[in-house]
Automatic annotation (TrEMBL):
Keyword Membrane: yes
Recorded superkingdom: Eukaryota
Keyword tags: Disulfide bond, Glycoprotein, Immunoglobulin domain, Membrane, Repeat
Protein name: CNTN1 protein
Pfam families (UniProt xref): I-set
Domain Ig-like: 1-35, 41-128
InterPro entries: Ig-like_dom, Ig-like_dom_sf, Ig-like_fold, Ig_I-set, Ig_sub, Ig_sub2, Striated_Muscle_Regulatory
SUPFAM superfamilies: Immunoglobulin
Amino acid sequence: KGELRIQSLSFDDAGMYQCIAENTHGIIYSNAELKIVASPPTFELNPMKKKILAAKGGRVIIECKPKAAPKPKFSWSKGTELLANGSRIRIWDDGSLEIINITKLDEGRYTCFAENNRGKANSTGVLEMTEATRITLAPLNVDVTVGENATMQCIASHDPTLDLTFIWSLNGFVIDFEKEHEHYERNVMV
């Protein structure tokens, strides 16, 4: 195939590589530079979110994406407690932490630790639980004669510290009330 594979790269492998293809009609060359990147983990460009919100009974994924080469090993703590994979907690290969069935006890300071053969770093964020958003009055099926108006209601309860937005869609496509204001009207009751 004309393929070159290099396993277990070292800094000595860095440099300019040249591929030469030759047959009875002639010879052609192609060059490429191989750079070897190695750095300790750093969160300078992509720190963890300082505040993470999660809905009661829901699921949250807290991302941990430091810049590092080679790929670091990850570990997590909540406060001073080291976390491990379990029935509700999972540490992904990419470093993200997943928690399911969120309860008030899950609130607190979470720290992601990243370590490779060049060094280590960590980043911390605070998880806060919010009340889950729930539809308390769902739209009902409506039979309407052609040419008449139809009204559908949707009422939801939500955490008072958060804003609530209603999005309506028709057959899976979001309704743009600005573009279709002559056909659709939205009334928001506070």
